[in-house]
Write a structure and sequence with these properties.
heterodimer; A: mainly alpha; B: Arc Repressor Mutant, subunit A; 2 domains; RNA_pol_sigma-70-like (chain B); sigma factor (chain B); RNA_pol_sigma_r3/r4-like (chain B); transcription (chain B); DNA binding (chain B)
């Protein structure tokens, strides 16, 4: 019964009309050992196919160098960026402070100048005092 | 894509690439070199990799084309592939054909098949690809794949019977 089925499948197999599942059935039958003598040659075929599938690629693929370069490049870039922002900020703050100081000094200078002008005019107040004294003395 | 991610994508089918390369180039060393080359090429395209519907199919096609180019350039420069055990085969056959020997014979018979049939047999009977997948890979219609596969299977069988009878006699 089983043999009949296998023979049918073999026929389909040679015409390449079997499904993957049917081919699995055939493979299982031939790898099991107990094979009908007139189908012996298929044992070699199916054994070979399953052996061939065991072969693996063991060589290492050198992906690392390229990867590492990029990694370090990005690390370096980030470092430069951080330094730039950190020290750049400091520098900017210093410049800003200097500017503010300069402006304040200028403003104070202006105030002082104007204040002096004001005090200069205050001298005339003394005239008033003199005049007053003169009047009081003569009286 | 990171390296580990890439390896996770590539891992499941890297052996298939290697086996296809070996089927076409025969020599293990050359197949290893070819597989390495393909994986490096894939790695260099890894940013575009997500666009491909199936990375495996893409890689298999790359491998096929790469190996066929290799074979072509070899023929052009008159360098023959080293079939180290080709001549020895008939001698060992005259001794006695053991079961293990006939399994090895399948490999040698497959070497003698035309490339299309070789690949069809490899992709179907070893890797269990569907006819549609094989068709896309080999740029053939599924029906043409069936024809090639049928021929390949019949040839392997006939040659096995031939060898077998010869060995016994």
């Amino acid at each position: 019964m089983e043999l009949h089925n296998i023979e049918k499948l073999i026929e389909k197999y040679l015409d390449a009309t079997t499904t993957v599942a049917e081919e699995e059935t055939l493979k299982a039958y031939f790898l099991k050992g107990d094979v009908a003598p007139h189908l012996k040659e298929y044992t070699a075929m199916f054994t070979y196919f399953s052996v061939a599938k065991e072969e693996t690629f063991t060589k290492q693929v050198p992906l690392k160098p390229r990867k590492r370069n990029y990694k370090w490049l990005s690390v370096a870039a980030v470092a430069v960026l951080v330094f730039g922002i950190y020290y750049g900020n400091d520098y900017r703050e210093q410049k800003e402070a200097e500017y503010v100081l300069h402006q304040t000094k200028k403003a104070f200078g202006l105030i002082a100048q104007n204040l002096n002008k004001g005090t200069e005019k205050l001298v005339y107040l003394n005239k008033f005092e003199e005049a007053k004294n003169k009047i009081y003395k003569t009286n | 894509m990171k390296q580990t991610e890439f390896l996770n994508v590539v891992m499941p089918f890297k052996d298939k690439l290697f086996r296809l390369a070996k089927r076409l180039l025969v020599s293990t060393e050359e197949a290893e070199d070819a597989t390495q080359e393909i994986l490096l090429k894939l790695w260099s395209k890894n940013d575009r990799m997500k666009q491909y519907a199936s990375v495996e199919a893409f890689a298999m096609t790359m491998t096929k084309n790469f190996c066929l180019d290799r074979l072509k350039s070899k023929q052009a420069s008159n360098l023959k592939l080293v079939h180290s055990n080709y001549t020895d085969g008939s001698a060992s056959l005259q001794r006695q054909v053991e079961a293990q020997d006939s399994v090895n014979w399948v490999e040698k018979i497959m070497e003698s098949l035309p490339e299309q049939q070789k690949m069809a047999l490899q992709l179907r009977d070893v890797e269990q690809y569907s006819f549609e997948e094989i068709g896309k890979l080999l740029e053939m219609t599924p029906a043409a794949v069936r024809v090639a596969l049928s021929r390949a299977r019949k040839t392997v069988r006939e040659k096995l019977i031939e060898k077998h009878n010869y060995g016994i006699a």
